Amino acid sequence: MIGSETESEEVPKTFQVIYSTMIHWTRLIAGGLVLPIVFPWLVYTLYKSHFKNKIFRDKSLEDKVVLITGASSGLGEALAHAFHRAGARVILAARRKDALEKVKNDLITKYQSKNTPAVLPLDLHDLKAIKEKATKALDFYGHIDILINNGGVSFRGEIVDTDLEVDLRIMVTNYFGPVALTKAILPSMLERNSGYIIAISSVQGKIAIPFRSAYSASKHATQAFFDTLKSELSHTNIHVCVVSPGYVHTNLSLNAVTARGETYGVMDHTTATGMDPNEAAESIIIATAAKRSELVLAGILPKIAIWVRVLCSWLYFYLMGSRAQRIRAANTIKQD
């Protein structure tokens, strides 16, 4: 009887030993099979994301001709610094020549470079003049390697109060202007079979939020146009990237247009606490060196909102409806 109990106790112990041995050898075998695959992948990922983009990107961008619209301030100015610092031949474009000259002098003063930035006064709202301006841009160096459509204007207002002229103004500046400039530059890129076109859109080009109708509509159109262009140029060596930032700490909200066409003049809390423009420019220049086709520069919540809009639209619209009610109740929309 005692012998039987001893034998019965030894059986579970035997199974435990066998189980532990199997687990041990399974781990060894799995490790032996997985590590040779995972380790090189980790090394390659590190090389691509850090070593290649951080160290060799300047060399890959050196002497590249980069045309940046909206380069007089904000993200455009930060991009001018980033590309000039990388050794690119930068063409600064915006409406105000005096502001562009200031940026140019800052670049010359802060960085040692063999390349001197060029200045191109350009009003994206003046569609008739854009082709001529594009020709002048091409005349600086004979070609454009990288076109960055960054210039634009924001909007604050309720749809029912917004004059149609305001919608047209926003759409022309944010959509038709960049489209016209891209169409004017594109033939020269096709002739050389080389080029990179970047459209600075917005998270609001993927999702719409209350009291931003004209701005969101212009960015939705931008997203669609450059997505289509990306597909149509897939057989060429011309790459297209749509960058969708969330809130960036610039003067975008200060210079926004109201429903009546006036200047908003308020620094929104979301803008004031947004991403540093230099940080955004750093991410964009890395994406440029890596020739990425899309970049969403936002925190986790905006990215979740994009997925909620696609996968669970009723929840998205419920949340946006609640947001509209809160904003209206708090009276944060500037009224006449």
UniProtKB/TrEMBL annotation:
Keywords recorded for this protein, A-Z: Membrane, Oxidoreductase, Transmembrane, Transmembrane helix
Bilayer-crossing regions: 28-47, 295-317
Keyword Membrane: yes
CDD domains hit by this protein: 11beta-HSD1_like_SDR_c
A Gene Ontology cellular-component term: membrane
InterPro entries according to UniProt: NAD(P)-bd_dom_sf (IPR036291), SDR_fam (IPR002347)
Chain coiled-coil ranges: none
Molecular function GO terms recorded: oxidoreductase activity
One matching Pfam family: adh_short
Family (UniProt): Belongs to the short-chain dehydrogenases/reductases (SDR) family.
Protein name as catalogued: Dehydrogenase/reductase SDR family protein 7-like
Annotated organism of origin: Caerostris darwini
Gene for this chain: CG7601
